[in-house]
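Dear colleague,

Thank you for sharing your sequence with our group. We've completed the structure prediction you requested, and as agreed, I am returning the results in plain text so they can be pasted directly into your records. Please verify that the sequence below matches your submission; if there's any discrepancy, let me know and we will rerun it promptly.
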Amino acid sequence: MAGVGCGDLWGAEREAPCSEIGRPVADRQAELAAATREISRQALHDRLTGLPNRTLCWDRLSHCMSLADRRPTGFAVLFLDLDNFKAINDTLGHAVGDRLLVDVAGRIRAQLRAGDTAARVGGDEFVVLLDEVVSAEAALTIAHRLAEVLRAPFEIGTDRLTRSAPHFQSGLVEEKPVTDRGGPGRLAKVDLDLGVRRGRSDRDS
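Please find the predicted structure tokens below.
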């Protein structure tokens, strides 16, 4: 059988329809665009939990603050961490600790409204940014709901964990004066001591 020379291949390439020649270019451009979006996403999200990271959290907080004087509602920021998380890593291993963080992130995310943000800003530290809240009481209602769902035991493999109930460190609420819902609000610290007990691991029970 006669061989195929380079000239024959080049001739076939020249005779290919323009749409077929252009398709690999379009595919490559789509791949590059997808890769760029993924790089951007990874730069702004926590790789373990998928939550926004510190950078994206502060960016969204800055956005809320920039709109504060032009909206009739305020916003709230809740800071929370997990009790005894280091002990879980030390006794049960980092794999269990990582799974716990993922499950905690999922429970927090499930309780938030559209427009709210849950972010992981440290090892076991989370920030919840509540957008468009009307009062400190409204923020407390959501904080109580978060505490309730995070208080429930976490089933991770053969381990049943109750020791990592959330500890709300503090909270800030930008409240609008009742008589001037369109004007600047005041940034008030609210008491977020929800009385969440320190549990213990039921692994050996």
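Summary note from our side: Residues 178-185, 191-205 have pLDDT under 50 and may be disordered.

Kind regards,
the structure core
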